[in-house]
Design goal:
Elements (H helix, E strand, L loop, with lengths): L1 H17 L2 H13 L17 H29 L7 H27 L21 H26 L9 H33 L4 H13 L2
Length: about 220
Amino acid sequence: MKVVIFAVICLSALAIAEESCYKDINDACKATNNKKSFITTPKCNATYGAITAVLPDLRNYAAQHITHSFEYLLLSTHYANYEKNRDGFKKLFQELSDEKWGASIDLIKYIAQRGGDMDWTQNIIPMDMPYDIYELPALAKALDIEKELATEAHRIHRETTRKREEYHDPEISDHIEHIYSHKQRDNIRKLAGYVSDLTKILDGPDSSLGLYLFDEYLQKQ
């Protein structure tokens, strides 16, 4: 029995060696000694776990954040003009834009840390938000965006907690959970409250004054 176990361990070690940085380095040294001019060490990188399988999803998620950052920025500038002059809404959407931009940079850095890279030829998501919309529809659209991003975070998290080896990666799922899911939960709760409050205000007897006071409230948040 011990002989069988030892044989299995040896075979496993050989299989790992065939896919290892150590083997690449040994081959590179042999090639150098043989004076070959072209040397590659493809296994000597930061890639491990399920990053290769999940990389397309992470790239797309980063691109989503960049697109939504620009959409929020357009909304912010729309409410900053002389006609609208809604400094509270401008502040809200500017903060959401900055947050999405920062999240995209964080995810791109994380992809690089795990041995991947962005593919800007494939991960371009066009903007589809009308930026010249009224206050309540703008809040509703922002709420939809945050729910969309939260749902995608849950999907990626689910992929990386699968039992199948090629997808299972607790390190990625932990990063997604703590950096993205928690923040989106807070944004969804906040925006849902804003939509509910503003709906009631606009249905009241003096909607214009109510909207003005609501914008003042947003400036203080």
